[in-house]
Amino acid sequence: YLHGLVRDNDRQKMSKSKGNAIDPLGVAELYGADALRMALVAGNTPGNDIIISEEKIRGYRNFANKIWNVSRFVLLNKLSRISADNKHGLTRKLTANDKKILKELKNLTKKITELIDNFKLYAAAEKLYRYFWHVFADKIIEQAKPRLVGNNEKDKQAARYLLKEILETNLKLLHPFMPFLTEKIWQEMKNKNCLMIEKWPGF
Prior knowledge:
This protein is an all-alpha fold.
């Protein structure tokens, strides 16, 4: 369902006899199973032949590194200070832009859910890739950095809450595609339950 024939960069069918086959176990060992999973799902539509190269798999390894680095940044900014007890109070301290970002996150969750429900896994994977890297990492994290080192403690707490909400939601949405990395980060966040059995965001 996910793809038809696996082809190389020259659009030749991969086969051992041609010597152009990529050993899945080998690249999983080298770049991670999650990177291989993403490479096989993203950038293709059901039933069509897919072009796979080591460069593509390496690119998703870089994405996995980005997820890890962003998660470490959020965790290092005293994420543990946010408890279930003070979440309600923190939402009152959110800026208008914070609320706009959370609304966009809710819309993203709705769209990803629709895509997965309709078996458009390739589109869901690509949309999550673009959001996490180009919106969360490139824009939201950068905008939050001055707030995290500022003197306004209430604003600092609101920024931490915002980043935590976005990270947790993205880990849940990415889990079907990159289960090993997202589960590892989830446990680093000191969550009691495994990510696999957490409720899907929005439900």
